[in-house]
Specification:
The protein has about 400 residues and is an alpha/beta fold. About 20% of the residues are buried.
Length: about 400
């Protein structure tokens, strides 16, 4: 039958999700720390947990040498042989038991603090090792409490934090509510919850599509990019590996059932699903959906700048609320997009033609009426600066 302390150790290990050996090591370290504070010697102390009795045995280790330099850590060969007979040899170690029942209340309190600290460190290491490999994964959690705007949630028996900046503006939460979030990072040495969650990261949108759309899960349809302004709008670029499969239709689903499930999870965030293309012009045209584009031209391929012309009625739709549509399209495609209406483009072209015609007219006038020698001399004299008149200057000085 196990002793009560060993049963307690196993129960604590199961609760914290750590190995019992880690707790036993913590107990041994705690008693060793308390013993060093009590005895205040230079002895080489060592502790060992006895699983049968539930006691922690304390020993002073001494090294067998021929000539003793430090009596606290060494013992002569003669003394060792007097104690243990001829079995004792040089370089062997001897354990001398020491009392632990004299450590007192303060030493016991120190041991308790060390045990708790070691258990917490072991628990945090286990959490880091488990969840660091799951970054980018969507998990279910339960809202527990609020701390300075941050949301503390529970993932099983582990607490995680959903920072204010990772919360969507369109969402509000109540204690006990279940939410889905993506694991954004795991802190090894942070105080409080180690796991950082996010509801605004585009990875959450991608994972939700993978869960709702079988074609994405099996690899028939691929997500080539996703951008979000959490709570307002998102754009997703999809591509099909098979010609017979419509990537946009697969993501939308029958009567929009698939995408509507994602919109509900994101609390009404609008989602534009566009088809990805290797052709940058086609991709930008698709990315500006739902606006209809008249024509697209590459202004600077090196700087990745495009000019897009839309109908006058489509200009506000193409730009979007506070520039949201064109901003998301630019992030999704990686191109800087300059949108103009047909009227603006027409005025710009007319101005360019007007400047060109004015330049041609000047050239024609110069060809019809070339400068005469007298005109050339007149231009040269007009270009020369006027010379100073020293005589008048000197007269003025004399008068003054």
């Amino acid at each position: 039958m196990q002793n009560p302390l060993m049963q307690t150790i196993e129960a604590l290990a199961k609760e914290k999700g750590i190995e019992p050996d880690m707790i036993i090591t913590a107990i041994e370290d705690a008693v060793l720390t308390a013993s060093r504070k009590y005895y205040k010697t230079n002895e080489n102390l060592k502790t060992r947990f006895n699983q049968e009795t539930g006691q922690v045995d304390l020993f002073a280790i001494k090294h067998i040498v021929k000539d003793v330099d430090d009596p606290s850590t060494q013992i002569s060969l003669k003394e060792a042989q007097d104690l243990y007979g001829d079995e004792a040899e040089v370089d062997m170690e001897i354990e001398f038991p020491k009392r632990t029942d004299v450590l007192g209340r303060i030493a016991a309190q120190t041991a308790k603090q060390v045990i708790f600290q070691k258990v917490r460190e072991a628990e945090r290491e286990n959490i880091y090792a488990e969840y660091n490999q799951r970054i980018g994964e969507v998990i279910n959690s339960t809202v527990k409490r609020f701390e300075s705007g941050d949301l503390i949630v529970e993932i099983g028996r582990v607490e995680a934090v959903l920072p204010r900046k990772e919360q969507s503006r369109a969402e509000s939460y109540t204690p006990g509510e279940r939410i889905r979030a993506v694991i954004k990072g795991v802190n090894r040495s942070a105080k409080g919850p180690q796991i950082v969650l996010s509801r605004t990261d585009p990875a959450l949108l991608i994972k939700l599509f993978e869960q709702e759309v079988p074609e994405i899960y099996d690899g028939t349809v691929m997500i080539r990019g996703a951008v979000r302004e959490a709570g307002d709008r998102a754009k997703v670029a999809v591509y099909s590996r098979e010609r017979d499969v419509d990537p946009v239709g697969a993501c939308v689903g029958m009567k929009g059932t698939r995408v509507q499930a994602i919109i509900r999870e994101l609390r009404g965030e609008k989602i534009d699903i566009v088809e990805w293309s290797e052709d940058a012009i086609v991709f930008v045209t698709n990315a500006l959906s739902p606006a209809k584009v008249q024509r697209v031209s590459i202004v600077d391929e090196k700087e990745r700048v495009m000019e897009v012309v839309v109908e006058d009625k489509q200009l506000s739709l193409a730009i979007g609320k506070k520039g949201q549509n064109v901003r998301l399209a630019a992030k999704l495609t990686g191109w800087r997009i300059d949108i103009k209406s047909e009227e603006e483009k027409r005025k710009e072209v007319e101005a360019q033609f007007g400047a060109l015609e004015a330049g041609d007219a000047h050239a024609q006038m110069d060809a019809l009426f070339p400068d005469t020698p007298a005109d050339a001399e007149q231009k040269e004299s007009a270009a020369e600066p006027e010379e100073a008149q020293p005589a008048e200057a000197s007269t003025e000085v004399e008068q003054s």
